[in-house]
Design goal:
78 residues; mainly alpha
Length: 78
C-alpha cells in the first residue's frame, strides 16, 4: 500500500501507549483456575479409564532423573 505525500499518520500519545501496556496486565488474573476447570476434570474422569486426571501441576512437578540403565533399555515388546 502506497501513501501519498499528503497522508497524515497519527502517532500514539504517551498515555495511549501506557494504557495499551497496562490494560492487559489488569485483565489477566494469574494463579486462578478457570471456572470450568473442575467441570473439565470431572468430564475427563468419567470418559477416560483413569483414576486421576493429568493437570498442570503434574506438568510442572519435578520428575526423577533416569539412571543410565533405564535410559538405554528398550521398551518391552507386547
Amino acid at each position: 500500500m502506497q501513501y501519498s505525500r499528503h497522508t497524515h499518520i497519527r502517532f500514539l500519545t504517551n498515555g495511549q501507549i501506557v494504557a495499551m501496556l497496562i490494560l492487559p496486565l489488569l485483565l489477566v488474573a494469574q494463579g486462578k483456575k478457570a471456572p470450568t476447570q473442575n467441570l473439565l476434570e470431572q468430564i475427563a474422569l468419567s470418559v477416560a479409564p483413569v483414576t486421576k486426571v493429568y493437570t498442570r501441576e503434574d506438568l510442572h512437578r519435578a520428575r526423577p532423573a533416569l539412571t543410565p540403565d533405564q535410559a538405554l533399555r528398550p521398551a518391552p515388546a507386547s
